[in-house]
Amino acid sequence: MSVLWTAADGHPRCHWCSATAEYLAYHDEEWGQPVADDRRLFEKLCLEGFQSGLSWRTILAKRENFRAAFQGFDVGRVARYTARDVQRLMGDAGIVRHRGKIEAVVNNAQRAVELVAQEGSLAAFLWRFEPDPSAEGAVQTRSTSPESVALSKELKQRGWKFVGPTTVYAFMQSMGMVNDHLPGCVLRERVARARLAFRRP
What we know:
The mean pLDDT is 94. A two-stranded antiparallel ribbon has the order 1-2. It is 54% helix and 3% strand. Helix 2 (38-51) runs antiparallel to helix 7 (99-119). Strand 1 and strand 2 form a beta hairpin. By secondary structure, the chain is mainly alpha-helical.
């Protein structure tokens, strides 16, 4: 939805965050803030993969459980998970018990280890796909972009899974690679300033 919503503090915000208090906190404190930390980037890519076919509300409610299940999304540790770990996680009611998605996290951790060895960091690689800020949207109606298509294709070629263009675009929105807060949203200018001050890896 591309309309604004006025919160209890009197400030307008993107309408989607009106659904729950958790959404409001996520919108105000995280969504669109630029991130260069590899662990957070990996976590969000994984969680966006888990979100496929579900609501973000479901994933957000289970986020701490996911962090416990995947050891804080430490790439090195998750890369060493075995079939026994996958089976253990299939019995974990605190997360989304989808074998393909769980196996994708383990696979992607292994691919991330390779990528870091080649590129220096996940952040250095991922931020190369940042769109031109002047081309940012203003209506929150698109679900992909040329850059998300390109990044998705590159990750898939490197063996990553559950990283389609829509998943990758949602990742770009949340990790500050685009500022998709609506014009008039109280967070749009705050995020714009954070992006200006952000040092690209």
